[in-house]
Amino acid sequence: MEVVESYQDAESVQSNTIHLNQTKDSYFLNSSIRFKGTGNLLFVEDGAKIKDTKLLFAGNNSVIYLGRSAWPYQLEADLHHDNVLHFGRDNSFSGQTRIILSEQKHLFVGDDNMFSYDVLFRNADPHLIYDMETKKRLNPSQSIFIGDHVWIGQEVKFLKGTKIGSGAIAAGFAVLTKKFPSNASVGRNPAKVLKRNLFWTRPAVHAFKEQETRNALFQETDDFSFKRAADTFSFAKLDAELDARKTPQDRLAFLKQLSETKTKNRFFIGK
User: Fold this and answer.
1) pTM reported for the whole predicted model
2) 203 phi and psi, to 5 degrees?
3) Nearest 5°: CA angle at 170, between 237 and 105?
4) How far, in Å, CA of 247 to CA of 234, rounded?
């Protein structure tokens, strides 16, 4: 097993590929990366901050891509064979997010998302379920996709096949299992749409005084309102693009290109 617990340890990795540079704005605190397999690839953008994080490559040929952000990553992630775990830029975490990826399926998270405490992602059940008559498997594993600027509440669970569009809100303790539109709030177990045509902003109201509360009654902006446009890129197509690239290096090249060509409405999901 290859183990990385510091920037210096990254230099000794031989059977896997790792980009983890110590730069002016980065840090790597109380964290570890463990490679049980070979051919895996970890790419951390320069400037990314990592603390209280455990990344486990339990199989071969998987990819983790962590974009830079002003906030530190707080993750516990297990990947197996041929998985992709992607976090874009400027995501924030109030506590640790737990991720388990299986059976060559993926988790893709866009930019500017806000994670509360104890969020969970699982893209497999993980045991096998079959129809008694046809003997066909009923529960194939599926990738999970999160757009841009999604607010994810405390203890939200994302299960296989979940897709949630940019600008949405996943209310605390919700269990998501299907596709949800942009600029909507979703909640409950199983989750359903609670309200449509809304947007949210990052300022926390905890310490607001009376004047700040009055000032926040209206927000004249369309910055966080999303719509279908020529640049909209379906998550089904994104999943197919990831599957079509068979090597970690090809998948990394695709993820880099996607990051550098970001457009506002790329992950819009309609009603």
Assistant:
1) 0.97
2) -55, 135
3) 35
4) 22
Beta carbons of 140 and 123 less than 8 angstroms apart: no
Range 90-123 burial, b when 16+ CB lie within 10 A, else e: bbbbbebbebbbbbbbbbbbbbbbbbbebbebbb
**Does residue 18 contact residue 33 with C-beta atoms inside 8 Å?**
yes
Q: Is 245 helix (H, G, I), strand (E, B) or coil?
A: coil
The tens digit of pLDDT for each residue in 26-67 reads 999 999 999 999 999 999 999 999 999 999 999 999 999 999
The string of pLDDT tens digits covering residues 135-167 is 999 999 999 999 999 999 999 999 999 999 999
Amino acid making up residue 243: D
Which structure tokens are listed for 116? 């509360």
**49 three-class SS:** strand
